[in-house]
Every structure is written in C-alpha cells, then in structure tokens.
Amino acid sequence: MAVSKLASSAARLMKQGLLKEAALDFERAIEQDPKDASALLGLARLRLAQHDEPAARALLQKLVALHPTHPEALSHLARLDAEKGDARQLDLLAALASQPKAGYFEVVNHGRALLAHDRYAAAIPELERALQLLPGNAQTLTYLGMAYQGDQQLDRALRRYQEAAEINRTEHLPLQLAARVQLLQGHVGAAIVTLRQAILRSPRETALFREFASLCLMAGAPDAAMRAAIEIRLQLPDSADAIYLHGISAFVAGKDEDADRILREALAKAPDSAPVRIALAKVRRKLGDDAEARTLLEAAVAGDPTDVGAANDLAVLHLSRPGGAAAARTVLAEALKAHPDDTDVHLNMALALADSDKAQAVTHAKRAQASHRRDIREQAERLITALGGK
Q: What stretches pass through the bilayer (predicted)?
C-alpha cells in the first residue's frame, strides 16, 4: 500500500505533536486521492487521539469499504463498538489480535475492549503484549494501570501509572489515577502530593481541584481544601458545586459564620440541592439553630426520602428532642427500604427503637456492627450491651 508524500509528511507532523498541521496534510492527501489508504488511516488515528469518535468512525468506514479486510481499521471500529457495550465485538478483536502479524493497534484495542467490559485479568496480558510492541507508550501504561487496579493489584497499578507519568510529563491523568490508588492503599498524604503534581500539569482542570479539596478534607487539612475550592470558584464563578465545596471547607476549618454565609450563597444558586441543605443544616445546628436545621433537613428528605444523609441527620435531630423517637423511626424507615445495608441508618434506627422495642433495636444494632467505621461499631456494641443483647 503506497504512502503518498503528503501522508508521510502528515505522519511526521503527528509524531511531533503538531496535530493541527498533520490534519491539514492528511486532508490535502485525501482531497488529492480519496482512496489514499495511508491518509485515511492516519487521519483516523489522529481523530481517535483527539477523542473525535464520529470523525474517526467515518474515516475508518471509508477505509474498510476500500479494503474490507484491513485489520487495523476493523480493530478500531470493533473497539469503538465494544466500548459502547457490544460484547460480540470481543471475539473479532481477539481474532485480529491473535493473527501472526498483528500490530500494536490490533493488540491494544483488544486489551482496551476487555478493560471496558471489566475483564481485567484478561486485559492485563494483552496490554502487556501491546507494551512490548510499542515500548514506553504512556497511554498503554495508563491502560495497564487501570487493568491492574481493576484486578486489585494496586502496587502494580501504581507502578504503571507512575511510569506513564514519567514518560509523558504534560498529561495529568496518570498522576490523578495514581493518587486514587494511593488513597485506596491508605496513603492520603502521598495521594495529596501526587494530585498536587497533577494540578501543576493541568492548572485549568477544575475536577483536579475538586478531588484535591476532598483529599485535603479527608486528611484534616481544611485550609488547603479552602484554597483549592477558591481556585475552582475563580475558574467557575457560577458553579454552585464550587461554592458548596468552599462552604464545607470553611465549616471543617471551624469558620462557622463564614460557612453559613457561603453555603447560603450556594443554596441561592441551587435551591433544591440536598447536599447544600444538609451542609447548611449542620452549620445551623453548630450555631445553635435547630429550628432552621430541621426545616432544611425536612426539605431535603421531602425531595428524596431515600437520601441517607438527610434521613440520618434529621433522625439524629429528632432523637435529640424529647418524644422525637417516633418521628425518627418514620424518617429512617424510608431510607432503610432503599438502603437496607446502610450501617448508619441501622444504628440510628436502633437508637430510635431502644425505648419501645428492645429486640428490634438489638437486631438493628447488630447490623450496625458491620460498619467499617470504628465509632459506629463501638456505639452499636455499647447499645447492644445496654439493651442486654450480649
């Protein structure tokens, strides 16, 4: 299959990262010869790299119409369909990848499709084989990290993400994914450092700041979380989510009056937001205003009776008042229908039943003992002992 001069020029430009210039040369080559297979394939690869699936698909279909057995074109099309949920394409991808002369794209597309269908163990050897065909490819290393992570091989996943980040020093995704693995490993501090490096690579990526703020809150560093939230607000001044994150950070930092003001601003932007109502209710309770806290939580529960956060907080508020157990039980019953395994709901239901039905209270308290949180487990154990449930 002869390669035209324009297609060769475009391929060189593409390797240099000059995608706009490469696209122009590919398009000129196709204008001169609509059957230029190298130009069609090259431009399809470029559009895939730009995540422009419709344009890539159209080019690949033209190429397959000219060359019905073209392995790479068939592989790209099958992978796109597989990632949309068509599991039937996995057999075709496996067949293309198993051919003696299968190239990098046939193999990596098979690995990616397996990854998309959560077949992590099967994806790993295919992606490792793709890496042998194209050593040092950061994208393949990232996919490998995802496969290892899905297979619960966290150390190997982290290593692959870090290798990808080292090879491609401008892409933030490998670092973002590495931070998530470090968090799963319980290394919150390391995750914060890694995510900060990701932000330095993509300082306009607001999702990174949001994730960084959440990590900082988890690590007990609310001031750093506030700075991240403020950065998001500067980039997205009309975002209720950014304002909410700012308010939560202020609350965790102990700046209750600031949190109250900021969360009210968020509520004005998103008046039906349950998370904002719940957060503002926490602030109002901290400031001694249970009446407004109750109004906010009742509105959140009315909007979604299955919201465990709102239900639990409203139940706790009811339980803090004399004679409030019945109201707490009513609220918790709806949440428990939708979330029968939620240990927080079970603990609160046990507390709400303690004075009226000790046997049922013990049953719910025992369910609460399954919590991953030590404070919930210990509270449940104390309640079981107090109720004589052993």
A: none
